[in-house]
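re: ur question from the group chat, yeah i did fold both. here u go
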Amino acid sequence: MTTETLAGDSESPFDVQVVPMASESIPILGPRLVKRSAKPLPARFVDRPNRFTARVVLRSGKLVRAHLPNPGRLTGTLVPGCQVLLDGPYPSSYRCRYKLVAAREGRVWVCTITTYVNSLFPLLLQSGLFPELPPSNLRAEVRRGQSRFDFALDSCLIELKSVTLARNGVGMFPDAITERGRRHVLELARFAQQGQPAAIIFMAQRGDVTAVTAAADIDPAFAEALRRARDAGVQLLACALWFARDGARRAWRVPVVI
């Protein structure tokens, strides 16, 4: 990938990243990563007591708990001592007064908010990133059969997959066994066999990805379901997102390799 370096917020000496050149990506103004604070709060990751809680150290040296809105393993991303970004503080009545919204891995920010892609997707459609899917009559949270899918575009059912794991520049999904994800993929395959248009879109929430594939070594059942979906006619699409400290700022298409 052709790249250029970009110096980030002067508050952080770590914010020098590699970003895609404009000829390979489109500029976007994605939703802000933080809602509570005026700007993300820097901290250092310590550990993860449970799936949805992280312990971090603020710049003041105070150890606090932060909500982690991501059920995945985040292998290679959340490592002790890595730089993270927080939203908060939330009121004292909250169990966690902070939310962990991004983590630094190498030279890129990785968004840790699984649902961020859902709020970003309509913007990407309007930008023309997915010409296969004209942005008309978009509906969210559409129920079909036994499942609820992220979107429907006219008659096309769409399921989004947030990708945070990467190996050697290739985004890998999933990073943990996902029975629910496998079930959704198989349902889309069944609908496609019946003539229903369907698409699975992998959205890599990190700016160092050039392709996306199924992590067969982590969840072989999901990888097999994805092959069945492809063979049934489900469209497999993917994009990568580059994040500044306050949100997604560039997007580009990448291939899905199965």
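okk and heres the other one u asked abt
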Amino acid sequence: VYTAQDINQLYEKIHKVVGKLMSSKNFYIAIYNEAEQTISFPYWVDEYDPPQPTKKLSRGLTEYVLRTGKPALIDAERDLELRRLGEVELIGSPQAIWLGVPLKVGEKTIGVIVVQDYENEKAFGEEEVQILTFVSEQIAIAIERKRHTDEINRIADELRQLNNTKDKFFSIIAHDLRNPFITILGFTDLLLTDYKELDESEIIFYLEEMKKSAEISHNLLQNLLQWSRSQTGRIEFNPTKILLKNLVNVNLELLQPTAANKEIQIKSEVVDDIYVHADEDMLNTIIRNLITNAIKFTPKGGSITIAAKEVGKYAEISVEDTGVGMSEATMANLFRLDTTHSTLGTNQEAGTGLGLILCKEFVEKHDGKIWVESNLGEGSKFIFYLPLAD
């Protein structure tokens, strides 16, 4: 059994081993999940009953062996006695004889191995109990070892995928950081070499473009720093009582010049008396990123509305724009790191989607949720819930 390539192949090999030692036309392995108080049946061969789904612990014969931690050889007479005592209930087709042995690793019972016969009540006896008990000890160790090996392999695969995702992600970050600096360096060289030939309006234009590029780089680096701290557990979470309208207004003032450059109107419909229980820095990041994202994908002359209302114990906060909107496929991948890619706004503004990933992480840190409603060409509405302050 130690040569099995995966856990399912291991169960098949166990069945073959047992079949060489006794009748095994009806054979199953039950695995106990202590945390969820369930038993599953990863391997099931039976003449009458179909494979059983995972189920909560009940009063079946399998659970009887789990409770006692001892082998049980049960014929029809013993089965009736246990039912009269309330120890078990009839589950599945009645059998002539049933033999169940606990699968133990040390003192821990991880499951039960069972053989049964529907016709021959003499199919199993004390000799089969001893054989199956001996076999079960080796089988339990093999199952536990294989489960641990499979879990280690699964985690290793996840880590490899995560590394590949992060490699791709950081290549996008590097690309989007490089572009603004190319603009800054290009205009800096131009100003240094040709400033005598440039009139005042041209110089102002170049300086404004350099400022835009610097702001893009700064915002990206700021998001990257916060995301890095979040991933390594180095970001503090200090929720306090916050008047939502004041915080929104502060962020609107900061982003108003950026919106004005695209002639975008931003308005707040947040009422005066909504207080949320939130970390102020995280909430600023959420609001800032959602508004910045709306500005990016809203064309010249559009509008953005920030609104909030109370819904039960939560504040429902929304940022709605009249921008380009998005498809169902884009929405499905919007908050996922593994599908992040560089996107351009209506004025060719670069972006990686990192800001939205941060929004999701920070909202969920508050036990809230975030989603988007959108149609291609009809604008987007980002909505999130935060707990109200007491």
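fwiw on the second one: The first strand starts at residue 26 and ends at 33. DSSP finds nine helices and 15 strands in the chain. idk if thats what u expected
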